[in-house]
């Protein structure tokens, strides 16, 4: 992510580095105009060459002094080229670290005869602490000017999280005063953003001059991005948990993985809906206002990107208030990112929104154990489920999953679904039967229905609530009835509905009176994704994962899962 922007920044850097001008009048100024050449392609998420032509207009013998190139979020270069060695050393051989090429047109002072020089652009080690990388303008193995600083804009920057290059420009070459008229360059294999806004984002350039350092000229050029709908999006979630040996506190690790060519995730939600894990109120002691100073982390986060050679590590802090806590992930330079998630203690849910457009193949969040860890358990049961849901960067694709996990350190006999010495005990596991699934034709028409029966053994505690989830490609929706919005298309046999709700991707059915068995039929409450309808239309096999959480009168939750092949 930052890496890609590094390349774009490199573009700007080479422009500035190559520029050199002699200053002469106190009122003189320099302005710039930039145009982009996207003839190599505009496909979202793809790696393709980008041309950038910057033309300078210098008055009264003035010349550019400093230039900043601001790349739109998601326009990134691969800092992992050459195994990351380009960030460790300066290699001007162009064998391994070249990221572009171009032509610089300059005018010796008071001359109207231009000099055109061919240059290449090289990714080099960061010139200053906190920089992501450096950009060198290379003329036949010799660097022109100083190395450009490629920086990652921090969270909250008005231009969004992305790359910027700040360059100090010389006003002579080999002691000869010159003016730069144009830098026409092509940068190789930039990774394009994964968003396709109706109003394109801009590549922006600002420049001042030697004779007017307090006056800045700005110019922009729109970056066209197309084909976001064709990007794949299939993140996978996993959860593991380890109970402390000396207390009830549990360390919880949540991991989301994606393929390198997928659209990055923008919004991510993770919740633990059952009674397996509880909230440890002692964790409130670790609330802090302004991390990281004087604050104790509650965990760590690790992110891996195909565009950066090493993993990025952050500390996780509990911020906000006791009634409205937040989980803050703070990454240090060169990625000064702050990711903030809202936390709901009652539902054990954390939601992160506005994640940056940076491709990640892995994001792992570890919430510590210990006396002030955030979760605890009584090992009754010793396993459970977590619900994960997410949205891609462009906002047109969603993914959800129900993830099962065991708590290491709990006795095996506490695991739900294992053989019990007393199968008719009050907490006996409910069973799922009499499943009637829709046909491919029903999926093709967009009108699927699903029915099943849930029951508990004799002498077991009765059922009072059921939550339902279907993945992938099936969600639950409400409908407009008159002037009100209602949930329709849910029918029960053997029980009566007290209330219906849609929460965190689940349909929650509360019964008016507890029963030992009942049948559920779902029709118009089901909504298919376009991808699922398309697969059914092509006659492809459809596989669904049905996840039920049944709650009995003892307020114990039991999870039932079944794979449905249609």
Question: Would you write up a description of this structure?
Answer:
Helices cover 5% and strands 49% of the residues. Strands 1, 2, 3, 4, 5, 6, 7, 8, 9, 10, 11 and 12 form a 12-stranded antiparallel β-sheet that branches. An 11-stranded mixed beta barrel has the order 13-14-22-17-18-19-20-21-15-24-25. It starts with a helix and ends with a strand. The model is unreliable at 1-28 and 418-425 (pLDDT under 50).
List keywords for this structure.
5% helix; 566 residues; 11-stranded mixed beta barrel; 12-stranded antiparallel β-sheet; mainly beta; disordered N terminus
Strand-helix topology:
Blueprint: H1 2-18, E1 30-37, E2 47-58, E3 64-70, E4 98-108, E5 115-124, E6 133-139, E7 142-152, E8 163-168, E9 172-173, E10 176-191, E11 201-209, E12 212-223, E13 236-243, E14 249-257, E15 265-271, E16 278-279, E17 299-304, E18 312-320, E19 325-330, E20 338-344, E21 349-352, E22 362-367, E23 375-376, E24 383-392, E25 398-408, E26 431-436, H2 440-445, E27 450-455, E28 463-471, E29 474-476, E30 479-481, E31 484-486, E32 490-493, E33 497-503, E34 506-515, E35 517-522, E36 526-528, H3 530-537, E37 543-552, E38 557-565
Parallel strand pairs: 13-25
Antiparallel strand pairs: 1-2, 2-10, 3-8, 3-11, 4-5, 4-10, 5-6, 6-7, 7-8, 9-10, 11-12, 13-14, 14-22, 14-23, 15-21, 15-24, 16-23, 17-18, 17-22, 18-19, 19-20, 20-21, 24-25, 26-27, 27-35, 28-34, 28-37, 29-36, 30-31, 32-35, 33-34, 37-38
């Amino acid at each position: 992510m930052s890496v890609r922007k590094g390349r774009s920044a490199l573009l700007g850097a080479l422009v500035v580095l190559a520029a050199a001008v002699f200053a002469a009048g106190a009122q003189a100024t320099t302005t710039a105009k930039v145009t982009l050449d996207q003839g190599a392609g505009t496909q979202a998420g793809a790696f393709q060459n980008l041309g950038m032509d910057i033309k300078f207009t210098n008055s009264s013998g003035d010349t550019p002094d400093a230039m900043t190139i601001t790349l739109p979020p998601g326009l990134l270069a691969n800092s992992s080229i050459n195994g990351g060695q380009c960030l460790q050393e300066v290699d001007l051989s162009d064998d391994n670290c070249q990221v572009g090429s171009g032509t610089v047109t300059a005018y010796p002072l008071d001359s109207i005869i231009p000099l055109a020089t061919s240059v290449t652009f090289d990714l080099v080690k960061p010139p200053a602490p906190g920089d992501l990388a450096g950009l060198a303008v290379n003329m036949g193995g010799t660097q022109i000017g100083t190395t450009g600083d490629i920086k990652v804009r921090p969270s909250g920057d008005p231009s969004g999280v992305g790359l910027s290059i700040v360059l100090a420009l010389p006003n002579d070459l080999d002691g000869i005063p010159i003016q730069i008229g144009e830098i026409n360059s092509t940068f190789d294999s930039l990774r394009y953003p994964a968003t396709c806004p109706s109003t394109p984002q801009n590549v922006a350039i600002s420049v001042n001059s030697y004779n007017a350092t307090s006056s800045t000229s700005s110019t922009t050029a729109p970056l066209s991005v197309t084909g976001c709908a064709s990007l794949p999006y299939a993140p996978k979630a996993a959860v593991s948990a380890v109970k402390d040996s000396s207390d009830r506190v549990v360390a919880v690790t949540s991991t989301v993985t994606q393929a390198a060519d997928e659209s990055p995730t923008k919004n991510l939600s993770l919740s633990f809906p059952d009674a397996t894990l509880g909230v440890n109120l002692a964790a409130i002691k670790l609330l802090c206002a302004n991390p990281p100073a004087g604050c104790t982390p509650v965990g760590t986060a690790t992110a891996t990107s195909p565009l950066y050679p090493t993993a990025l590590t952050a500390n996780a802090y509990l911020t906000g208030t006791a009634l409205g806590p937040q989980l803050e992930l703070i990454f240090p330079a060169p990625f000064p990112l702050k990711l903030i998630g809202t936390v709901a203690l009652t539902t054990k849910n954390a939601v992160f929104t506005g994640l940056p457009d940076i491709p990640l193949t892995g994001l792992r969040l570890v919430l510590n154990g210990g006396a002030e860890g955030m979760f605890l358990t009584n090992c009754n049961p010793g396993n459970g489920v977590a619900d994960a849901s997410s949205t891609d960067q462009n906002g047109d694709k969603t993914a959800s999953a129900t993830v099962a996990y065991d708590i290491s350190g709990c006795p095996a006999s506490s695991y739900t679904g294992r053989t019990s010495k007393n199968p008719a005990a009050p907490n006996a596991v409910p069973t799922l039967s009499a499943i009637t699934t829709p046909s491919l034709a029903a999926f093709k028409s967009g009108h699927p229905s699903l029915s099943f029966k849930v029951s508990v053994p004799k002498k077991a505690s009765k059922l009072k609530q059921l939550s339902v989830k279907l993945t992938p490609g099936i969600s639950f929706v409400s409908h407009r009835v008159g002037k009100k919005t209602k949930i329709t298309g849910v029918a029960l046999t053997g029980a009566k509905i007290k209330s219906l709700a849609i929460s965190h991707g689940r349909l929650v059915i509360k019964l008016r009176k507890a029963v030992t068995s009942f049948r559920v039929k779902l029709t118009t409450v089901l909504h298919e994704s376009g991808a699922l309808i398309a697969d059914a239309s092509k006659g492809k096999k459809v596989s669904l994962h049905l996840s039920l959480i049944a709650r009995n009168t003892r307020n114990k939750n039991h999870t039932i899962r079944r794979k449905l092949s249609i």
